[in-house]
Design a protein that fits this description.
With 368 residues, the protein is mainly α. It contains 20 helices and no strands. Helix content is 80%, strand content 0%. α6 packs antiparallel against α7, α13 runs antiparallel to α14 and α14 packs antiparallel against α15.
């Protein structure tokens, strides 16, 4: 080098050293473009020396830079996964990853991340935090019924039946939209087990059985729903349930018997008469004169002058061999005929009465 050029070269070298020094200071202060790389080297060095917590803290600083300053969420996620490799139980890293994935539209990965966090919370017996994580999953996986069920079950463990039921119903709705009704039965049974007083759940289960063509199971469930309404002093709703069941199984005696009793209790005379007469008809069809007579008596208490009812009662009592009771029914029938001027029918009834009691003076005098 020419001696005259040496001062210039030295000055240039000195300026470069100052520039490098200032650049290093800026990087260390977090103002330079290479800041994350420097922090990463520090984290690697901490890791090599076994200072894992220190390494993780440094990596989380890099995440903040990528996320907040550089808008590089994919790189932030990559670093967060490095943190989790070093410290698998680091919830802060897992939560940041889940949020970043969720915010950048990577729903499936985000749901998986939230699910892993929930598992960690459960291992730590923190069910409340685990529930919050699973709720995130449910909002991300709105087409997966099992995800909704997972939320429901953890709310059930938290003794929160209302929230649990909400997510069970969401699972059922998904199954329904997917034309997959069979699993709905088990889901509804779980919901009913933790919330047995919910009318809507019992109703939904009955309807699912019905849609699946399982009429016997549907009938059992409708009966349970009707009883639930009765137990809660809601007879009109119970009547609607039993009426629907009667359309499915017209000859179901238990249903009609409950329906008749309810109509009697709420003073619905036409409804009670209709059901009692139908019950009497069904009893006669199965040759059960005892039941037939009992139902007819209840109907006649509501409508004492029912001629058809009195005739049927007299016939049932005849089959039972109860002459005295049959005599009373025929006597009531004869009085109705006589009071309405139907003498021919009145005399026929008297003949039957005389046959039962040939030595009864009153009967002879009435015949005259």
């Amino acid at each position: 080098m020419i001696p005259s050029q040496m001062p210039v070269a030295e000055e240039t070298f000195r300026l470069r050293l100052i520039s490098c020094f200032l650049t290093s200071l800026l990087l260390l202060a977090g103002c330079g473009a290479e800041h994350p790389q420097i922090l990463f080297q520090k984290a690697v060095e901490s890791e090599k020396q076994g200072r894992i917590a220190e390494a993780c803290d440094g990596l989380l600083e890099i995440v903040a830079a990528y996320r907040d300053e550089r808008n590089q969420p994919a790189d932030a996620v990559r670093v967060l996964r490095r943190v989790q490799t070093l410290d698998p139980e680091n919830l802060e890293a897992r939560e940041q990853e889940a949020v970043l994935l969720e915010n950048t539209g990577r729903a499936e990965e985000a749901a998986s991340a939230w699910r892993k966090i929930a598992q960690t919370h459960r291992r730590q017996n923190d069910l409340f935090s685990a529930a919050g994580c699973l709720v995130h999953c449910a909002e991300l996986e709105t087409d997966k019924p099992q995800t909704q069920i997972d939320v429901a079950e953890i709310f059930s463990l938290l003794d929160d039946p209302d929230h649990a039921t909400q997510y069970y119903l969401r699972a059922i709705d998904i199954h329904d939209r997917q034309d997959n009704l069979e699993p709905c039965v088990e889901v509804l049974e779980r919901a009913i087990a933790i919330n047995p007083g919910r009318f809507d759940l019992a109703d939904a289960l009955a309807r699912i059985h019905e849609r699946l063509g399982k009429i016997d199971k549907a009938a059992d469930q409708w009966l349970r729903l009707g009883q639930l309404y009765e137990d809660n002093n809601r007879p009109k709703e119970a009547c609607r349930v039993y009426t629907h069941l009667c359309t499915l199984l017209p000859e179901d005696l238990e249903c009609r018997s409950r329906l008749a009793g309810l109509y009697e209790s709420i003073n619905d005379r036409p409804g009670a008469l209709r059901e009692l007469r139908e019950l009497a008809r069904l009893a006669r069809a199965r040759q059960d004169a005892e039941d037939e007579a009992a139902y007819l008596r209840r109907a006649l208490w509501l409508e004492p002058d029912d001629e058809a009812g009195l005739k049927a009662l007299a016939e049932a009592l005849e089959r039972l061999g109860r002459a005295d009771e049959r005599l009373d029914a025929l006597a009531r029938l004869e009085r109705i005929y006589f009071s309405t001027g139907r003498l021919h029918e009145a005399l026929a009834a008297l003949d039957e009465l005389k046959a039962l009691r040939p030595d009864e003076p009153e009967l002879m005098s009435r015949a005259i």
